[in-house]
UniProtKB/TrEMBL annotation:
Known role: Converts the preformed base xanthine, a product of nucleic acid breakdown, to xanthosine 5'-monophosphate (XMP), so it can be reused for RNA or DNA synthesis.
Statement: the UniProt record of this protein carries the keyword Zinc-finger: no
Residues annotated to bind xanthine: L20, N27, K157
Broad class of the protein's primary localization: cytoplasm
Organism of provenance: Gallibacter intestinalis
Cell compartments where the protein resides: Cytoplasm
Name of the gene encoding the protein in the UniProt record: xpt
UniProt name for this protein: Xanthine phosphoribosyltransferase
Subunit-structure text: Homodimer.
Length: 190
């Protein structure tokens, strides 16, 4: 996706050899037009799949899930919470996910009422690094008896191996931009 690659090159900022800061347009402040393009592109990549819900983890994936669900003409974008709110009083599905960027472990959870057996789920997120969030979301979908049709990522950090882990487990993975490495402050696509 050329517009995304241009945005990453012009406005993304490499920090060290593993972090790419995209706060100006993707996961802190949202470039709405770019997000609409991202949603359309992910919808196109999974065209032909009957998708009942788009699933993500809070909070970086929420805008991606909304844009993708709108482009698919899917009525539901669902996000797993990282902490259990007081309003989640019933049973829930949960799975642990480690964030290597934040250095934390979250217990992602979804209210059992929001996932129905047999639903076809597309998992999306802003970043795909080690694949921990996507694997946790796939686990939650499996607990509910749902089928994951694929995983869509805006930015794949290929050097961290998450896409390969997901593919090894049989998941279709589509990344809109693939970063081969970050070297001396430069983003290398590939």
């Amino acid at each position: 996706m050329e517009s995304l690659k241009n945005k990453l090159t012009e406005e993304g900022r490499a920090i060290g050899s593993a972090i790419l800061k995209v706060s100006d347009f993707l996961n802190h402040q949202i470039d709405v037009q770019l997000m609409k393009e991202i949603g359309r592109e992910l919808a196109d990549r999974f065209k032909g799949e009957k998708i009942d819900k788009v699933l993500t983890a809070e909070s970086g994936g929420i805008a991606v899930a909304l844009a993708t669900a709108e482009a698919i003409v899917c009525s539901k974008a669902l996000f797993a919470k990282k902490t259990v709110p007081n309003t989640m009083t019933g049973e829930r599905y949960s799975a642990e996910a480690r964030s290597f960027t934040k250095g934390t472990v979250s217990n992602l959870c979804v209210d059992k009422e929001l996932l129905k057996e047999g639903e076809r789920i597309l998992i999306v997120d802003d970043f795909l690094a080690h694949g921990q969030a996507a694997l946790a979301l796939a686990d939650i979908a499996a607990q509910a008896g749902c089928q994951v049709v694929g995983v869509g990522a805006v930015i794949e950090k290929a050097y961290q191996g998450g896409a390969e882990r997901l593919r090894e487990k049989g998941f279709r993975v589509e990344s809109l931009s693939r970063i081969k490495s970050i070297d001396d402050g430069n983003v290398i696509f590939g």
